Amino acid sequence: MSTQAEPKRSVGDRFRQWWRERVPLHRVDFRELTNEPVPNHLRRWWFCLGGTPAYLFVVQIFTGILLAFYYQPSPATAYESVATITHHVSYGWYFRSLHKWGATLMIASVILHQMRVYFTGGYRRPREVNWMIGMSLLVCTLLIGFTGYSLVFEQLSYWGATVAANICDTVPLIGGTLKRLLLAGDEYNRNTLPRFYILHAAVLPVAEITLLAFHIALVRLHGVTPLRFEDEPPSRSETFPFFPDHFFTELIIGLVLMIVLSVLATVLPAELGPPADPLQTPEVIKPEWFFYATFRWLKLFSATTAVLSMGLIVFVMFLWPLIDAGLRRITRIEDISEYIGIAGTLTLIGLTVWEAAVAH
Fold first, then answer.
1. How many domains does the chain have?
2. Tens-digit pLDDT profile for residues 316-349
3. Which structural domain range is residue 180 located in?
4. What is the mean pLDDT of residues 296-323?
């Protein structure tokens, strides 16, 4: 009695069966899992800025790991190791430049994303906690930028770190402790650079990833913020599926960003200034662009007044969802936060341009 031979399956069919047995997630299940309705306004890039810094953060991790193979976090070897990466390692200049421009665009996109959330009221009930997490991400991103800038151990980065430590020292009560925590001592010493490196490469990235995980989880739980606050969620006709529509939008944004980063890294590669000299103070001490407004503010007031006022501003921004609710209740002006935000944004832009343009 003969039996009909079982048709021979291709390698692809056997692999798919092997995969389905071990990962029992079918296409329909995956579509339901990822197909969260997304409001139509997120079709525009400037309304979905949250994915941009996340993508750039991945670029930073990848390029940072490559640079870490050659970087030596010691005052005696740091500058030479960066010079080796820039001038001798194959494509070292390119990956260092990608890292530098990725940091610049990441900080800019986090700032723009936070501004977009602010001006569209995305911090209001029930999303107050996520706004505070977003503010923590902004502060963490700025600290990553500061510590990364300090690792080059060139003249400006060395004195920039020294000035930052002296600013910390002006904080009442805890200033001395903050300075010692930052410098690993009372002044810049051989343990300072390794401390910056640990903060930049381990502590702050882990904090960023943790905050980002909570941030995304709350976005998933609350859903994407609607463009206009309404009692009813947007109808099906006012949304589109996350996968594949929004996924492809984010993918296109990532590809465009990679092109932009490559162009910037090639046309404007990262430079290397003179090595740090603790015995010679440079005529001009200028921070990175994202601290221009802070630097100008420090020049307008006494150190203690400037530091305390900046700390108060940051504290107010963390609690803005609660302050906004009180202001709207007291003034009966629904858009009062937008007016305050416009004034604050123009002030920040003015201080930044002033510091960038003024003669030093």
1. 1
2. 999 999 999 999 999 999 899 999 999 999 999 9
3. 38-228+238-285
4. 94
Contact partners, residue 95, CB within 8 Å, separation at least 6 = 63, 66, 67, 85
In a domain, residue 142? The reply is yes
346 domain residue, yes or no: no
Residue 70 falls within a domain, yes or no?
Answer: yes
pTM of the model: 0.88
Radius of gyration of the chain (CA): 25
> What is the rounded average pLDDT of the residues 231-255?
70
Cα–Cα distance measured from residue 178 to residue 168, given in angstroms and rounded to the nearest whole number: 6
Give the domain CATH number at 280: 1.20.810.10
Q: Residue 51 falls within a domain, yes or no? A: yes
pLDDT in tens, 263-301: 999 999 999 999 999 988 887 778 899 999 999 999 999
